[in-house]
Hints:
Layout: H1 2-19, E1 36-45, E2 53-61, E3 65-69, E4 78-81, E5 86-90, E6 95-99, E7 104-108, H2 112-129, H3 132-139, E8 143-144, E9 147-148, H4 151-182, H5 188-197, H6 227-254, E10 291-294, E11 302-305, E12 313-316, E13 330-333, E14 345-346, E15 356-357, H7 359-365, E16 372-375, H8 390-394, E17 412-416, H9 417-423, H10 429-436, H11 440-453, E18 465-467, E19 474-477, E20 482-488, E21 493-500, E22 503-515, E23 520-525, E24 528-532, E25 535-539, E26 543-547, E27 555-566, E28 572-577, E29 588-594, E30 600-607, E31 611-617, E32 620-626, H12 642-645, H13 667-673, H14 677-696, E33 706-709, E34 712-715, H15 719-725
Parallel strand pairs: 5-12, 17-18
Antiparallel strand pairs: 1-2, 1-7, 2-3, 3-4, 5-6, 6-7, 8-9, 10-11, 13-16, 14-15, 19-20, 20-21, 21-22, 22-23, 22-24, 23-26, 24-25, 25-27, 26-27, 27-28, 28-29, 29-30, 30-31, 31-32, 33-34
Amino acid sequence: MQSTTNNSTAHLAVNASLASTAPGRPVTPSSAAGTVICDGWMLKKRRKRMQGFARRYFTLYSSGLLSYSFEPGQPTRDQLLLTQAAISTAPGRKDIHVDAQHATFHIKCLSEEDFNKWMAAFRKVLAQEMPKSRRSSLARSASRGGLQFSRAYLLVEEMGTTISEMDDALTAFREEENKRKRSSVRSKSEGHHNKEHGVLGLFRKGHHHESSHLSVPEPGSAESPSSSELLRRMATALEQLKNQHSALSKTFHTYPSIDTSVSSAVGSPTLPSTAEEEDEAHTPTTGQKRMSAFSSQSDGSIWFDAPEYDGPEEYLLDMTPAEETQENKLFHTDSRLTDRTDATEAGSSTGMDTDSESEETAAQSFAEEPAVIHRRTSLPSGIVGDEGSLFAVLKKNVGKDLSKVALPVTFNEPLTMLQKAAEELEYYNLLSQAAQSQDPVERICYVAAFAVSTYANTKHRTGRKGFNPMLGETFEEVRMHFIAEKVCHNPVIMAWHAEGEGWELYATASGKTKFWGKSMEIIPQGTIHLKLGEERFQWNRPSSFIRNLMMGTKYLEHVGKMVVKNTTSGDSCTLDFKEGGYWGPTNVVSGTVTSSGGEALANLEGKWDEQMARKLDSSHLHVLWRITPFPKNAMQYYGFTSFGITLNEITPDLEGKLPPTDSRYRPDVRALENGDLDGAEREKQRVEDLQRERRTQGRECTPRWFKQVGEEWVYTGGYWEQRQRGWTDIEPLW
């Protein structure tokens, strides 16, 4: 009794400490927290969006209090009670998610040993508080069709099982009654024995529902009603239970699936979708009720209100990224390159990226079915390492060109700048639509929509940059016959070329970045050229700004004018990327198509992260382009689109066909993609040292697939022909 009183007092003291502590401010656990059960270093997800994980020192007390600080012995930054928390784990990724009433900790253990140590400590606390009759039910995971269900859904399933048992038992009871009436008269004791051990023993099975503890008295006994009355009561109760179960089940299906196109709804493929990195209003832990959700890579997420607190909970999520199944793959049909190197490819109009060649080439080259390529839907590892303070690095370089400032690998994302150039062409199908259009105004509208769509992939990208390619490094993407090469090291200049059904696109890309104190400006340089039949188009890109570098949530904004010029007819489309106001809408783009004589021919409106449409009249729009929804786990994978996730993947159709200079073979990018931060740093240094060594020895690479014509670098051809012959004369760069 004394021990129970002490524990209750300790819990009250901890609750009072939590209630009086403002989130984010240093706190000190009271002495009532108890003895230390476990302590050590772990990575904790930062509160702000896209800020990654930070190394923190965690301490778990015997009372169930979990707290963390910057260093051992320093004041506690935040704390929560495990006795009021739901713990979700993904062992394959060493992730632990602790969702309490007042806070949510997203934790990543440094090793498998640490994960096992901390989970053992957590379970020790849970075992003290969790009712024994509920423990096994709450600890198990349940999956159906890849979708992980909440604990409430498990209870519905148990109720359904109980109903089925009762229904079977009632039917059997009626049959026995009929047999009993037809059979010879037996002794009461023998009849009682048969009922108790034959059919009605079903109701003596231990269950979580009071209805499962029903017992059927012997018909005709003094203290029991008649058999007909008992059957009527059982049938009535069963019918009510069926109705309640049906109504409860329907409420789960009425909950809307989370729209993956909304940033606040992005969740993990295997973890609870507690979007702490999103806006406060969407955080499941706010308010008096705790919300939790499970999602899968193949199904939409469903949110449920959790029941009132009845003790700690543990969920084991048994799907890990390393164990990708057939359902976690998207299916794509890729055209295989043929001996006709002038064959062009047309993209699909959806996000499934289905490639096809022109009708003429397909008729000549494909007598059999094209190969089916399985493309991944997630990266091998999520974001690793703390991004660090970009402001601390940049404050010493105010007004300077930051392309010459060396940054650690923690500021990178696992793509090179060549791959990022290909990523901007995700909606290349718009160019095929433009080429097929017979209306010159509609044609330039599609071209303008494509120019705007090149920014869509930056919706969730703010603080990280792509790896700087080595001189002579290349990247190919067969879906739009894309080839890119770094042609100059200082300044950094890249050239790329792509083609499809009725169109050809090429550009010389470079840029500068400048830090202005509170924001960083990215200034693109170079002109993008497009050929549509006999027509020629060109445009330049406006500046982009990373805002709130000093404090607050960083975000990316594209500001300025982009003029898409038809140099053949003189028509043009002026697109205005508007700067967002404090209260007004953001990411707005408006455009006007004008003839060579200055006459307004069409108006465009939309957002670069949503859609672009042509305004037909005051109440009708023609949607030219709409963004493909981001994957649900985009925020955990550097904010990549589904298309971007596939760019560094070596699919079976690429094995043995890529040159040794292709970005997919870069060891530092591959290491970062696999979550090996130290290995990525080592390989990055090694690759850069090899480039410097080649330069000092006079063996510096020269551009192979592009040549300089004036200020532009143009594709000389020959890449796809060489691809057919093999890469025997190409030296690796790393």
